[in-house]
Amino acid sequence: MADQRARPHRPALHSDLTAIIDAAGGTQPGSRAELAAATAAALVHAGRRDCDDDRFVALADRVGLDTLADLWRDAEPVSLAGALWALYLLRQWCHTNPDEVARLWRAGQPMSAADAVVAGVPDYADVDAVRRVADSVLGGAYRGDFAVALERAAALFRVLATGRRELAGADEYGGSELERAQRNERVAADLATAANRWRAGRLH
What we know:
Layout: H1 17-23, H2 32-49, H3 54-57, H4 59-63, H5 65-72, H6 80-96, H7 98-108, H8 113-119, H9 127-143, H10 146-168, H11 174-199
Helix pairs in contact: 2-6, 5-6, 6-7, 6-9, 7-9, 7-10, 8-10, 9-10, 10-11
């Protein structure tokens, strides 16, 4: 990253995120891709060896989503950093706009039964269910099968994309909703590919 101003204080995590960033290359220009890959790998390693995955699930709450954005939002979508960024964005969306997510889910679920089962959201999703599932998906990346967590997130994005398409016709901003649906589908496809690469040992 080009900005070399003093980094503001960040709250500590189990493995101090600031220390991870510094060890991975700090904020030196020309190292953004390497920094993204190194911090993502360090975080997944630390999270998967720690018995308290709640700390890692709530990472964005503790250090700020902007901090993670600075690290990962420009990473290749089909990469470890890109996949983690998608998971944290999904959780943030579900926690800050659960009504919207629940509405899209209820619209898309009847047409996406198989994906709905994979995602694990109850048939009639309320805001609490949406938040719980988002935490469960991200938590699975640290305490369970990482590829399964990515597949659950991909399925959730596909159902939400279907919901957007279903609701677009009744929405005066239907064109915008269709564009968002396409973006959701691209994220889902990237996560599914990332899951396959993780299983093959090629997600970096």
